Amino acid sequence: MVVIANFSKRLFDLSASFLAVVLLLPVLIVISIIIKLGSKGPVLFRQERAGKSGKPFTLYKFRTMKVDVDPFGQSPQTGDDPRLIKAGKFLREYSLDELPQFFNVLKADMSLVGPRPLYLSQIAQCSENHKKRLLVRPGITGMSQIYARSELMTKRSLDLEVEYVEKQSFWFDIKILFTTVLVVLKKQDVYEES
User: Fold this and answer.
1) Which of 6, 27, 69, 105 is deepest in the core (most CB within 10 A)?
2) pLDDT of 154
3) Where are the domains of the chain?
4) pTM for the model
């Protein structure tokens, strides 16, 4: 039963991500041009993260910050953060910076729905219970991304991720995907509270 569930989740991830890339290709191209013309540096931000079983993978995002910024530093607290590039605020508010992660899903590094992908160094900070998150692929969206969007590595966000691992199902994923759309459109909890 678990094998069938894993296969169907992967099949859904592949189908939905392929469709998303095809449909969003014009948007991906426009965002790439805006970033390239509006700031120095690469279009994509690449960073090593922990995948399923803690296996390292390269996460892709559209770059929203200037190139001379510490990639492991504190996330922007407001949309007016001087480290953001001109299009950075808009891309973050609507989670458009996350769109390249569909390629991570196609590569089987990630899933559409799952725990937030952590830095490799953050795994050591997780309790044994919170390490259950490593039993599944990290997701573009998930419980912590919608119910604790601006909270990184808080007990609440980690508990939500464990809850997802324990409750995951096809219909639960569908519910999370639809809830994500609502949260993004409302621009809810985009920035961390200081």
Assistant:
1) 105
2) 79
3) 2-185
4) 0.88
